[in-house]
Specification:
Strand content: under 5%
Number of strands: 0
Order of helices and strands: HHHHHHHHHH
CATH class: Mainly Alpha
Number of helices: 10
CATH architecture: Up-down Bundle
Radius of gyration: 20 Å
């Protein structure tokens, strides 16, 4: 259950972000974190931050592709490389033709589906295990403590890193800059904090259930494994929720990378006009 802190840290990050940083970023008038930093520290710092951010976002998308491919491969019975290609094609369509507004609407829709999907997984997992009590009787006690065997130091590092990521990640800054006002931007961060809060606990408990039922299984399949135990309609819905979540993550990160490249490298060097 301590693994839930990997998501719970995002709730803390969004809450602090809304309280202390949103208004400053919104009033900067920029839509990239690097350009906002450049207002105080200059162009060389902007380029350094931009390159680091692009590289970091590419690494984030590697994780998105791997986790999303696991869900698609389980549902469609295809190889992981083919599943990754499917993700690439669909997510590229989203952000190339929809842009920021299209991605925003798709994110809202898919996020709602995702929440319902993970709760269906939890319901199925608890049905298969007979509840929490049988798991507590069989699994080591540390599976159900707040810090597990992970320890306070690691959990603090997770939370600190996640909070830092919330404060500095390009696609979050980009979303903030697109809101009608600083107050609306702040509300959006509070909604995000509330949205992340139950997900960490639900996903962690589902993962513990997977460990109880399938102790030798690769943890990558801890959520998709329950699809085979559902009725066809529920399985289809949950598969859609998992895959939709990945599509949103991939296209959001890709759009953020494109924004950094355009704002920090293309526009300053090629100086395009509004018509080009």
């Amino acid at each position: 259950m301590a693994a839930g802190w990997a998501v719970l840290g995002a709730s803390i990050g969004f809450l602090l972000f809304g309280l202390f940083m949103v208004r400053k970023l919104y009033e900067s008038g920029e839509y990239t974190i690097s350009a906002a930093i450049a207002q105080k520290y200059g162009k060389s710092t902007m380029l350094t931050v931009s390159v680091i951010m692009i590289y970091a976002l590419l690494l984030v998308n590697v994780g998105n592709y791997v986790s999303g491919a696991a869900a698609i491969a389980t549902a469609l019975h295809v190889s992981l490389p083919l599943a990754m290609c499917i993700i690439a094609v669909v997510s590229t369509f989203y952000y190339v033709f929809g842009g920021l507004k299209g991605v925003a609407w798709v994110t809202i829709l898919h996020s709602a589906i995702k929440v319902i999907g993970v709760f269906i997984i939890l319901f199925v997992a608890m049905s298969l295990t007979g509840g929490v009590a049988p798991m507590q009787a069989k699994l080591p006690a540390h599976y159900f403590t707040w810090d597990g065997k992970i320890g306070f130091t690691t959990i603090f590092a997770w939370t600190f890193g996640t909070v830092g990521a919330i404060f500095s990640t390009q696609f979050i800054v980009q979303a903030i800059s697109s809101t009608p006002s600083a107050n609306e931007a702040r509300k959006a961060t509070f909604y995000a904090a509330a949205f992340c809060l139950p997900l960490g606990l639900v996903i962690a408990l589902s993962g513990v259930a997977a460990k109880y039922l399938y102790p030798d299984m690769n943890s990558l399949y801890a959520l998709p494994v329950f699809l085979e135990k559902m009725p066809p309609l529920a399985s289809a819905f949950v598969t859609t929720s998992l895959v939709a979540s990945i599509f949103v993550s991939v296209c959001t990160v890709a759009l953020a990378i494109a924004s950094l490249v355009v704002r920090d490298f293309y526009v300053p060097n090629w100086k395009p006009t509004s018509g080009s």
